[in-house]
Design a protein that fits this description.
Elements: H1 2-6, H2 18-68, H3 74-105, E1 113-115, H4 117-134, E2 138-143, E3 150-152, H5 154-171, E4 176-183, E5 187-194, H6 225-235, E6 239-245, E7 249-257, H7 259-263
Parallel strand pairs: 2-4
Antiparallel strand pairs: 1-3, 4-5, 5-7, 6-7
C-alpha cells in the first residue's frame, strides 16, 4: 500500500501555502467580526425602539393606578403601590436603554453651564445621608476650597454621582461611603469611595461595558448604569477610572473641566 502511494505524483499547486491559509483565516475572521457587529447594531436598534415605545403604555398604567388609589381600601392601596413601584423601576430601565442608545449613536449631548460644586455636593448629602444611615453606614461628603465652578450639565452630573453613590451603598455592608471633590483652575475631580467587598482585578477592564455584571455582585439591574456614567463623563470631555481591592473596597473617580478653563 505504501509503495503504491509513493508512486502517486503530488501536484504542488493543489497544496495551500501558509500565506493562503493565513489569508483565508483572516477573511473568515473579518466576516465573523462583521456579522457580530451587525448583530450588535440590530440588537441596539431593537432595544431603542422597544424602550421608546414602552414609555406611553407605562405612563398610562402609572396614571391609571394613581387614580385608582382614590377611594381604594387598604388591600387595594397596597397592590396599587406595588404597581406604581414596578412602573417606576421600569421607567428607570427605559430611560437607561434610551440613554445608551443615544450615547452609542453619537446623538447624546449635554447642556453645559456654570455649576457650583458645593451646591451639587450638598444635594448629594441630602439625597443619600438617610439611606446610608438606614444601612448603618457613614456617608461622608468633603469638598476642598480649591474646587472651581464647573462647566457641566447639572442634571447629568447629579445622575453620574447618584449612580456611583447608589452602587457604593448597595454593595457596602459596613463602614463608610465617601464623596470627595477637589480641583484647580482647569478641572475638578469627583471620587466615590466605599469599604465594600471590592472588585476582582479580572473584572475591572469590563466594568464600563454595557450589560456587564460583576460576578457575585449584588448590584442588580441590567448592567447599564456604569456604561451610562462613562458616556455622560465623556460627553463632558472628561475621563473616569476605577481602582479596587478585594476585601478592602473600591474608588471611582472622574474628572470634568472647570468653567474658567472651558470658556477661556
Amino acid at each position: 500500500m505504501s509503495s503504491i502511494a509513493a508512486t502517486i505524483p503530488i501536484r504542488k499547486e493543489l497544496i495551500p501555502s501558509a500565506q493562503d491559509i493565513r489569508l483565508e483565516a483572516a477573511a473568515a475572521s473579518a466576516e465573523s467580526i462583521a456579522a457580530l457587529e451587525k448583530g450588535i447594531r440590530s440588537r441596539d436598534e431593537v432595544l431603542a425602539i422597544v424602550a421608546h415605545d414602552l414609555r406611553n403604555p407605562l405612563t398610562i398604567i402609572k396614571s391609571s393606578a394613581a387614580l385608582l388609589q382614590t377611594g381604594a381600601d387598604e388591600k387595594q392601596q397596597e397592590l396599587l403601590s406595588m404597581i406604581l413601584d414596578a412602573c417606576g423601576q421600569m421607567q428607570l430601565l427605559v430611560n437607561d436603554l434610551l440613554d445608551v442608545a443615544r450615547i452609542e449613536s453619537g446623538g447624546f449631548t449635554v447642556e453645559r453651564t456654570r455649576v457650583e460644586a458645593a451646591d451639587v455636593m450638598e444635594e448629594m448629602r441630602r439625597m443619600f445621608e438617610s439611606a446610608a444611615a438606614a444601612k448603618g453606614l457613614r456617608f461622608e461628603v468633603e469638598a476642598f476650597d480649591s474646587v472651581p465652578p464647573l462647566y457641566a450639565d447639572r442634571n447629568r452630573l447629579i445622575q453620574i454621582l447618584s449612580n456611583l453613590i447608589s452602587n457604593a451603598l448597595r454593595v457596602t455592608d459596613s463602614g463608610t461611603v465617601r464623596l470627595i471633590v477637589e480641583g484647580d483652575r482647569d478641572k475638578a475631580r469627583f471620587s466615590v469611595a466605599d469599604t465594600g467587598p471590592g472588585i476582582p482585578a479580572a473584572e475591572l477592564p469590563h466594568l464600563f461595558d454595557r450589560f456587564w455584571q460583576v460576578r457575585s455582585s449584588r448590584r442588580g439591574g441590567a448592567g447599564l448604569g456604569l456604561a451610562i456614567v462613562k458616556g455622560f463623563v465623556e460627553a463632558h470631555q472628561g475621563t473616569i477610572e476605577v481602582t479596587s481591592e478585594v476585601g478592602t473596597g473600591s474608588l471611582f473617580s472622574f474628572v470634568i473641566p472647570a468653567y474658567a478653563a472651558a470658556v477661556a
